[in-house]
Amino acid sequence: MIEISNVSKTYGTGDSTVHALKDVNLTIPKGKIHGVIGLSGAGKSTLIRCVNLLERPSTGSVVVDGQEMTRLSRGELNRARHRIGMIFQHFNLLTTRTVFDNVALPLELMGESRSAIKNRVAPLLELVGLSDKAKQYPAQLSGGQKQRVAIARALASKPNVLLCDEATSALDPQTTSSILELLREINQQLGITILLITHEMEVVKSICHRVSLISNGELVEDAEVGDFFTAP
Ligand code: ADP
Ligand code: ADP
Q1: What pLDDT score does 103 carry?
Q2: Complex ipTM over 0.90
Q3: Which of 116, 118, 110 has the alpha carbon at shortest distance from 134?
Q4: Assuming Cys at both sites, which of 46, 98, 128, 164 could form a disulfide with 148, CB separation 3.0 to 4.6 Å?
Q5: HSE-up of residue 139 (Cα within 13 Å, Cβ side)
Q6: 224 forms bridges with which residues in the sheet?
Q7: pLDDT of 184-196, one tens digit each?
Q8: Which atom of ligand 2 is nearest to the CA of 53?
Q9: Ligand 1 pocket, residue 18 CB under 6 Å
Q10: CB-based burial of residue 27 (10 Å sphere; 0-12 exposed, 13-18 middle, 19+ buried)?
């Protein structure tokens, strides 16, 4: 489903060169929830952004759903990104759009008709528990509700992969639990493969099947969550 092979990423040149990723290899089978944990600056964000080519790897290959992402044309990449949803720490909602119109945005960009959009957005809002908030604006919502809107938006184009970039890091523990529960449901009910990055052990423990540890741009562990957290 996601195959990252020999990926390195370098920022800058000369004295200011940063080796953010060093020969990273990672395979995530379909339907799994995989966590990547590491300290700030370890390369987590660079790694997850290399999956949908928000960052372009300097070398190596990224295959999602059988497609080599680094070789796609701009149009092919846009279509491939419809199959890859993403959510962020700070939600990235559009403040001038209602909840409904935020979730509708990817469908509008895909050229869907107004009626097709209505038929798609309503069940998504129901899935994330926000049917009664459709006409509100992001500023009227709590952090957890905003992340639910972002999740609905990420699912609008029917992705089979969901990338979560510190998705619960701005939320309190109770809200974090409820968002993780929703991600688990999405994984189980819709069969969506999830790659998440976090600096929080608790997130990995509570929903991931497997976990990798990233340190200084290198993946230094890759284990079942049960094995990872068992003391030797
Ligand atoms: P993490 O998500 O684990 O905090 P990042 O992937 O954001 O780590 O960063 C990894 C390294 O790459 C850090 O040293 C960071 O300063 C550097 N870095 C990240 N993005 C850029 C960029 N756009 N330009 C230069 N350096 C960057
Ligand atoms: P940039 O303008 O930073 O080079 P893009 O134009 O590719 O990057 O994307 C702009 C923004 O759109 C990103 O910062 C991100 O918030 C969002 N975005 C891009 N691709 C996706 C995706 N597949 N899923 C969700 N959000 C995305």
Answers
A1: 98
A2: no
A3: 118
A4: 128
A5: 3
A6: 210
A7: 999 999 999 999 9
A8: 7
A9: yes
A10: middle
| Residue identifier of the C-alpha nearest atom 26 of ligand 2 | 86
C-alpha 226 – ligand 2 centre gap (Å): 34
Percent of the chain with pLDDT over 70: 99
Beta strands per DSSP E along 83-217:
84-88, 161-165, 193-198, 210-215
CB atoms within 10 A of CB 229: 12
**Chain centroid offset of residue 209 CA:** 16
- Asked if residue 232 has pLDDT above 80, the reply is no
- In degrees and rounded to multiples of 5, residue 21 shows phi and psi of -135, 135
164 alpha carbon – ligand 1 mean position (Å) = 17
How many Cβ atoms from other residues are within 10 Å of residue 123's Cβ? Answer: 11
Tell me the whole-structure pTM to 2 decimals.
0.89
Cα–Cα dist 116/113, whole Å: 5
Render pLDDT for 68-110 as a digit per residue (tens, 0 to 9).
999 999 999 999 999 999 999 999 999 999 999 999 999 999 9
